[in-house]
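Can't paste images in this forum, so I'm doing it all in text. The chain is below; anyone willing to post the predicted structure tokens underneath?
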Amino acid sequence: MNNSKNITFIALSAALGGLLFGYDTAVISGAIGNLTEFFHLSPVETGWAISSALVGCLIGAFFSDFLSDKFGRKVTMVITAILFILNSIGTAFPTSFTMFVLFRIVGGIGVGIASMVVPMYIAEIAPPKRRGALVGNYQLAIVIGIVVVYFVNYFIALQGDATWNLNIGWRWMFGSEIIPSLLFLIFIFLIPESPRWLFQKGSTNKAIAVLQQLNTKEEAAQVQSEIQSSLHQEDKNQWKNLSNPIYKKVLFVGIGLSVLQQLTGINAILYYAPEIFKSLGSSTDVSLLETSILGVVNLIFTLLAIQLVDKMGRKPLLYIGSVAMTIALASVGLFIYYNAVGNWVLPFLLLFMGAFSISWGPIVWVLLSEIFPNKIRSLALAISVFIQWVANFVVTQVFPSLVENQWLKDHFNGAFPFYLFSIICLFSIYFIHKYIPETKNKSLEEINELWKI
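Text version of the structure:
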């Protein structure tokens, strides 16, 4: 296997963690109705069945730095795969609702860890000219996981009548996650440890062997020199290194990217898309079809981003996405405000989805995986991802209140959330211009030097 194919295989194997991220997040969508009836859940308990996974995500993100720094990227991904396996079994055969929630949290912990360690690992093994596309596969895998589980849920639901689905069907939906979880576990054993982590831990010979496996001898020697030089510049204590003003700045940028990605409103629209469409006059069936179209657009434009990220660069795609999202959300707000919804809202929500999927969806993961210097990478990425999950939780919880608030309804006619999200998208243009460096075709160590200018 040549170097290029070898690196692609390694990156795609790790990206299965992203597929499980999407799969685990979306699997409950097809099961929640029957689950609610089976356990006789109240509305609050139904909400907890869904949001409990987010609690796990926060826990996983919090501990992801310790795990990836202490045990390595590969072992941490093995732990993640085991958590996904336990989650799939536990949620398929719960003896009580409490047990179900506990295993949903276990799965969430796996998602939280994966959302940090997988893109970081891919960035650390990828050559500069392909890093954007290879890390972009992580976001693509998330989208594919969501699309796949929608079809899996649909296929399972067709296997029996309403009684069968109430008692058995939803168990199969959660249990089906064991298949991609086992595949992830198997493939992780076939890929090497991150050479940058090996150098960091003093395993020089193993690190050199991995570099030579992924590069020509000349390239391996150059990368080795850059890595060792960057590691010798600072103390090994990552928390101590964060006191460096340069590292504070790059952490600020990482947190800003994470928060802005969520404050564009993407998850509010993804989670509540059927209800949004129904509130605008669509029937239940039509609203589900319109939501499915959003998913297809998400997939297509994520694929396009992967093709363009290493050619156009990170910043141009972010600019394009921010401008288009601002226009799309402001337009949706205007249509809603003037009760001119009709057939106009869907095209602009599709524009928003396409713009996000070509920019702030995959590109943020690419940048988060590459902007942090070696000496603080795992810690800074863990902090950024943790705050990203906090922002996700806040947006998801606040959005319904913004929609239902009577004062906002009286003054904005239901358009306020879309105006708010469009203003945030407009601000993101300034953030890109002011704080984001272009990292295209630069090694991770060369990116480190950008912050010292």
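The longest helix spans residues 43-71. The two ends are 40 Å apart (CA to CA).
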